[in-house]
Structures are given as structure tokens and as C-alpha cells.
Specification:
Layout: H1 2-15, H2 39-49, E1 61-65, H3 71-89, E2 93-99, H4 109-119, H5 131-143, E3 148-154, H6 156-163, H7 166-177, E4 182-189, H8 200-206, E5 209-213, H9 218-232, H10 242-252, H11 257-273, H12 281-302, H13 305-320, E6 325-326, H14 327-340, H15 348-360, E7 364-370, E8 376-382, H16 386-398
Parallel strand pairs: 1-4, 1-5, 2-3, 3-4
Antiparallel strand pairs: 6-8, 7-8
Helix pairs in contact: 2-3, 4-5, 7-8, 9-10, 9-11, 10-11, 11-12, 13-14, 13-15, 13-16
The protein binds a DNA duplex through helix 15, strand 7 and strand 8.
DNA sequence: GTCAATTCACATGAAAGAGACCACGGTCTAGTG
DNA sequence: CTAGACCGTGGTCTCTTTCATGTGAATTGACGA
């Protein structure tokens, strides 16, 4: 019986008219033909990179701006074009793009070089070799022929935070060793503060040129959404005001275009699932909710056991007393909780770091305060809705 | 009442250890001709 | 003779612990008005 129901479900699914024409246009892997409202930035990038076509080393370039302001998109877009020209004219330019944020990709010096070598068709082991060797191998590969080598490091702040700024120094110093080739760097960061916190020498060599990406405003977001939705959705599927609302939501969150597009896509998916003939404003609200919850649940599922235990302790405390919680209390509850979860309790020192990590992930709000005579501690509160916290608790209790 | 010293409860840093993972080279073993 | 299994060594990387140092304001207590 249930199976029959399933068959008819699939059949009616097929019969149903999809709202989407090309969903992939709304996904963030998609590179549009034309980038709106970023003409100046693209021109600037092109200006900096153009000397490469004359086999001169382009200045190192540093792009920064908040997430979803099109930094990566513009960088890739521009470099794609340059590569095309270079290929037509037979100019040896090599561009490698790396995202340093993804774990296990390029968050250490070793892995950075390993990744780059991988891009250059040189497979190297993920670990086990001395960094020095990888470094030399990299130099050898680059030096094989005369070329301009451009390395795009996305989310470079993550890399530098972990490895220190010596890596920039190494990379720029490399140019004095190289005879045939030249390397330039394009650093991309969405942490505006981070550039102030690195060594001034590294800073000046990294950002010989600097471009700031301002957030999109609501009107610009609307245009972007309109342009994309024309391709992504069938005609007349979007209800009045849907795009405006999407744009408004995203503009509130520092003009994040990626978020706006995701919102629209998820809203579309929800509408489709509800067999609604149109995407309405209500769908946006549901989508907003769902995205947030999915994001949080996803992050938590990926966390190691210890982090989960810490979060469990915080949720347990927050349930009892919704006011503010302090580090010491969390540690007490956490210690009791550990044996239940089959864990060995860590030191308070470590828990302190874990709390800071959870804060970074946006799951909790933790602020260091001084209570004067009564010491210094973190003021902790949950940064997620009660329903989400409840859901998390159930998942954590199941183990 | 004012002001500097004190004090608390952690935060924050640095260094070092444990254990997982991996490559590499050498040795051993079994299978093959 | 050779391919493959099986060490031991040396390397990276992540997560932790240990030890040390830092920190900001409420509190205290001395001081003077």
C-alpha cells in the first residue's frame, strides 16, 4: 500500500510543473556572463593584472570586503578573461585559485604548496614529507619554463591566522630566487580587520594594490536577483514583491548577494515542494528560517564530540536559567556530562578555547567581561532560537 | 570622598607532548620461471 | 628473481595539557578634608 502511494507520488511529481528552469543559476558555483555593479572593481583588477600579458610581474593584489560582495567572483571572472587572451597569444600565464578556508585544503604552508602542486599536475602526498622538500619541488616546477604565475588565495586571513605571516614573506621572497618565472599573489579576505593585525612588512608586500568591495545595497541586489531569476525561474512564477523582500533581507545582512540568491533558491524549492504555483513572500520567510536552522544543525553535526559536549552543557544551563551563563558554570556542567557521553573531560583551559570556537561559529554569543572583584569571564548566551536549541539537544542526547 | 593597591576568575599565550596519518627505504617471504 | 607484505624511521598535523602571564573593574583600605 505504502509502495503504491510512493509510485503515485513520483508520478504526480513528474506531472507537476516545475517552477525552476535552471536552478543552478542560483547556486553559488555559478559564474554569470556579466557581473552587475562591479565594473569599477573589475577594471581595477584588470589594470593590475594586465602587465602579466607583457610578461611583467603584476603587483600583488589584495581584495577585501564582506562576504557575498563578489570578491571571488570578480577575481575569477577577470582572471578567466586574462587567461583566454593569454592562450590566444601564446603567453605563458598560469593562474591557480585556492580557497584557504576549506579544511584540509590549504590551511598550512605544507598543504598550500601541496595543493598548488596538485593544480599543476604534480601529485604530492598529503603528509609525510618535509615542508622544505615540497617547497623546493614547487620552485622546481615553477622554474621549468618561463611564466607568470598568479596565485589567488581566497580567505587568506584563515591561512595567515593559522600559520603566521611568514608564508607571505616566503612567497614574495621567492621572486628573488626565481630566474625564469615570477609569482604574484592575489589575496582575498572578508575580514577587514585582519590586515591591520599582520606584520607591516608582510602587509606592504601583500597589498601593493588594494581594492575594497563595498556591500551591495538593496536596489543593486534587486537587479542582481532579477537578472538571475529570469534565467532560473519560469516566467511569472515569482509573486509580487518576492525579489524586493529577498533583497531587503540580504541588505540587512550587510548586502550579502550570496545569501540573497540562496534565499531565493530555497524559497523556490519550498514552494515547489508545497506544490504552490508561485513563490510567495511567505515562502521567503520559511526559507529564511530553514536556512538558518540547516546551517546551525550542519555546523554542529560536523563538530567534534568535545565541542558538542560543551554545547550540550550550555543548552542544559540555558534551559534552567535563560539569563547569562559564565565559563565556570559551563565547565562544571560539562564535567558531569562527559562521562555520560563517554568522554574524558578536558581541562578548563581547553574548554575556554572551545567556547571561543563556538562563538566564532555563531552558535553562542560569548563576550569577555570583567566583573571587577569577582574576576574575569565570558558572558555566554545561546545565539540560536529555542526550537533549534531543542532540536540540537535531542540530537546530542541520542549521541 | 578620593585614589591607588589588591584581588578574583578566568582569558590568553607559548611550548611541548600524544597520537594519527603518511612516505620512504630496507628486509623478509612466497610465488614464479 | 621479483612482487608484495611488513617493519622502523622520520616527517606533518591536530588536539591537548602544562605552565606562565595578562587583565579590567569592584572592592578595600589608607589618607586627607
Amino acid at each position: 500500500m505504502a509502495q503504491q502511494g510512493l509510485t503515485s507520488f513520483f508520478e504526480s511529481f513528474l506531472k507537476r510543473d516545475p517552477l525552476f528552469r535552471q536552478k543552478k543559476v542560483l547556486q553559488d558555483t555559478y559564474t554569470p556572463e556579466e557581473i552587475l555593479h562591479r565594473d569599477d572593481e573589475i577594471k581595477q583588477i584588470a589594470n593590475v593584472l594586465a602587465p602579466a600579458l607583457r610578461m611583467e610581474r603584476p603587483s600583488n593584489l589584495f581584495l577585501y570586503g564582506k562576504t557575498g560582495t563578489g570578491k571571488t567572483l570578480c577575481a575569477i571572472y577577470t582572471t578567466n578573461h586574462i587567461i583566454q587572451v593569454a592562450q590566444d597569444k601564446g603567453i605563458p600565464i598560469r593562474i591557480v585559485y585556492l580557497n584557504c578556508k576549506l579544511r584540509r585544503v590549504a590551511d598550512t604552508e605544507y598543504r598550500l604548496f601541496a595543493q598548488v602542486l596538485g593544480e599543476l599536475d604534480m601529485q604530492v602526498p598529503a603528509t609525510g614529507l618535509p615542508t622544505e622538500e615540497i617547497y623546493n619541488l614547487f620552485v622546481k616546477v615553477i622554474e621549468q619554463k618561463k611564466q607568470i604565475f598568479i596565485l589567488i588565495l581566497d580567505e587568506i586571513d584563515q591561512l595567515l591566522k593559522k600559520t603566521g605571516d611568514g608564508i607571505i614573506y616566503n612567497l614574495t621572497r621567492l621572486n628573488t630566487q626565481l630566474k625564469n618565472s615570477q609569482i604574484s599573489l592575489i589575496g582575498i579576505s572578508n575580514d577587514v580587520m585582519f590586515i591591520d593585525n599582520i606584520d607591516p612588512r608582510a602587509r606592504s608586500s601583500l597589498s601593493e594594490e588594494e581594492i575594497t568591495f563595498a556591500p551591495y545595497n538593496a536596489l543593486q541586489l534587486q537587479e542582481i536577483l532579477r537578472r538571475r531569476s529570469k534565467i532560473a525561474f519560469k516566467e511569472g512564477v515569482l509573486d509580487e514583491g518576492v525579489i524586493e523582500k529577498c533583497a531587503a533581507y540580504a541588505a540587512r545582512e550587510h548586502g550579502d548577494a550570496r545569501r540573497a540568491l540562496e534565499l531565493l533558491r530555497v524559497a523556490g524549492e519550498i514552494a515547489e515542494r508545497q506544490e504552490s504555483p508561485k513563490v510567495t513572500i511567505e515562502h521567503i520567510d520559511i526559507a529564511e528560517d530553514k536556512i538558518e536552522r540547516d546551517r546551525v544543525l550542519d555546523i554542529i553535526a560536523q563538530q567534534p564530540k568535545q565541542q558538542q559536549a560543551a554545547l550540550h552543557a550550555i543548552i542544559a544551563l540555558a534551559e534552567k536559567r535563560p539569563e547569562i551563563i559564565y565559563t565556570g558554570e559551563v565547565y562544571e556542567v560539562y564535567q558531569k556530562l562527559c562521562p555520560e557521553m563517554g568522554l574524558r573531560p578536558l581541562t578548563q583551559r581547553r574548554l575556554s578555547d572551545i567556547l571561543a570556537e563556538l562563538d566564532m561559529l555563531g552558535i553562542i554569543n560569548a563576550k569577555v567581561i570583567s566583573k571587577g572583584r569577582f574576576g574575569r569571564t565570558r558572558e555566554i548566551s545561546l545565539a540560536i532560537s529555542e526550537q533549534t536549541a531543542d532540536k540540537i539537544k535531542k540530537i546530542l542526547e541520542k549521541g
